[in-house]
């Protein structure tokens, strides 16, 4: 035995010669096991780091990339929504200070008078309640909740005491007592059972809070119960002499809404002041600009997804909150489904802090793995592909930045008349862009009065001229701008095209021409101008038209060279989400259909190979709910419970009966008692599993439980897919 061990070397087992299979000779088997483990270990080291890194850390990398990208998008959206209301919030605060000084100018009563329940005998004008009506223009109150929450925080930062009341506080069920208790709870920071305004007056006087006003914010007055809101306003007007209370109410439709809701005696107690916030379309454009264009997070959406979100925003929901939520769902689905999507997060962080540590190693490992897949036998070829792929990813990021800059330039040109969302959707359309190439071969381009060039770089120019859409309207508007507006537009283009050097130089050259023209006019002799007024005016108009034409040619050049749709760029799949069906299912959805598909196609979720080959035939290895629902497909409207149970019992008992036939042959007679007990337990467990599966189907809404008329049957609710 020892000689056998010494005479065998590990190198002999690296060959393809099979070892002996004798049961007595154990040494060769032992040495072969050690040698095979070494060789497999060497192969595993040879494959690392690329493949092992991808398999173990790919999902974690994508999750980290999603968190990094979405946190930037979400923070940018919150900041821009806060900034868009800043001017309106400042106006509201200045009005609050003026109203507070007007209330205190009548003189504040003493502590004893202020805390008494009966009203004071004062002039009628001193009882008027200063009321701010904030027009939000929203049909849904979701955005209003965030807007008035930000307004409350803004007023608190200036030292005001603020209480935010929702429309649900003004319900007939809660009554006026519910409104007052919610008001006291927010001001006093304690829960009280008594709804007494004298408690608020005592708190305001005792705690030294009388140097700041009390602000009551109602997010949507049109959703409040009119009778409860009327009593609440009358109550505040009685106490406004004792406590400087100022009311702010949100109005969704028109500023005349209080006249349609409140009675005349309540309207007489109000001293209104009107404020208007930005429209939902303006907020939508601001969020789109901050989240997907200026941020350049390497995440973008395809044309079909953008059109779906626009229609969803305009026709179904109309809230910026839902748009941001839909954008988050699209971002999460993209990073979950696209294996290489983590590169988008890595490229995004390259601008912020550069590639560092493990992320840099993993990105290089992915690039090396891609090159090995393309050319596994040539190291030189792999290095070339690695370098090419890296350069193309950098180029993808640069082209996406240029695309975003040109879209913003078009938006600046058509501002106040063309929505950014419309330009955004049109600039993303790859079908219209690619159709110009086919028109070049079929001759369809000649029907529009232009010749379609064969150069692919000219296709986008023809596309804008042919379609006459929003991009063409923006270019046409440049030709009609007055001189002052054109100068402002060029200033904005200068800021937007800083990273596009060739365009930036042309913009500065055009700016110098405008300044030179303005300087030439200012140095002209005014007397000669007056004498030659008509001829000078004609020359001035012609000069302005020439500058406007050059500006229009410049933006047309931007569109031609840099507005190639993102879906037409190489490697756009890394950061572009295009699966509109997935997003539509997540937002609108069909939950009952989804439940039915999951029950019938559970093997796709569980990755069960044996059940996938069953062809919808129930098997014991299937989940109980799937077995029950598959059996239910054989019935009509009504399912007989005893028959359903017997079918279920037959299927799940199929394996156990096979096992029992083998064990019964070797069983001793004295163990019969234990067999009967196990059979009873098996019968009880089957009944429990059956009841649980029926209950799950009832909870998901697929069946209706038995009634008194038919206690032995359940009714099917959902049919077909």
UniProtKB/TrEMBL annotation:
<dbReference type="GO" id="GO:0005664">
    <property type="term" value="C:nuclear origin of replication recognition complex"/>
</dbReference>
<comment type="similarity">
    <text>Belongs to the ORC3 family.</text>
</comment>
<dbReference type="GO" id="GO:0031261">
    <property type="term" value="C:DNA replication preinitiation complex"/>
</dbReference>
<dbReference type="InterPro" id="IPR045667">
    <property type="entry name" value="ORC3_N"/>
</dbReference>
<keyword id="KW-0235">DNA replication</keyword>
<keyword id="KW-0539">Nucleus</keyword>
<dbReference type="Pfam" id="PF18137">
    <property type="entry name" value="WHD_ORC"/>
</dbReference>
<dbReference type="GO" id="GO:0006270">
    <property type="term" value="P:DNA replication initiation"/>
</dbReference>
<protein>
    <submittedName>
        <fullName>Origin of replication complex subunit 3 isoform X3</fullName>
    </submittedName>
</protein>
<dbReference type="Pfam" id="PF07034">
    <property type="entry name" value="ORC3_N"/>
</dbReference>
<dbReference type="GO" id="GO:0005656">
    <property type="term" value="C:nuclear pre-replicative complex"/>
</dbReference>
<feature type="region of interest" description="Disordered">
    <location>
        <begin position="1"/>
        <end position="24"/>
    </location>
</feature>
<feature type="domain" description="Origin recognition complex subunit 3 N-terminal">
    <location>
        <begin position="29"/>
        <end position="343"/>
    </location>
</feature>
<dbReference type="GO" id="GO:0003688">
    <property type="term" value="F:DNA replication origin binding"/>
</dbReference>
<dbReference type="InterPro" id="IPR020795">
    <property type="entry name" value="ORC3"/>
</dbReference>
<dbReference type="InterPro" id="IPR040855">
    <property type="entry name" value="ORC_WH_C"/>
</dbReference>
<feature type="compositionally biased region" description="Polar residues">
    <location>
        <begin position="1"/>
        <end position="20"/>
    </location>
</feature>
<feature type="domain" description="Origin recognition complex subunit 3 winged helix C-terminal">
    <location>
        <begin position="592"/>
        <end position="719"/>
    </location>
</feature>
<keyword id="KW-0238">DNA-binding</keyword>
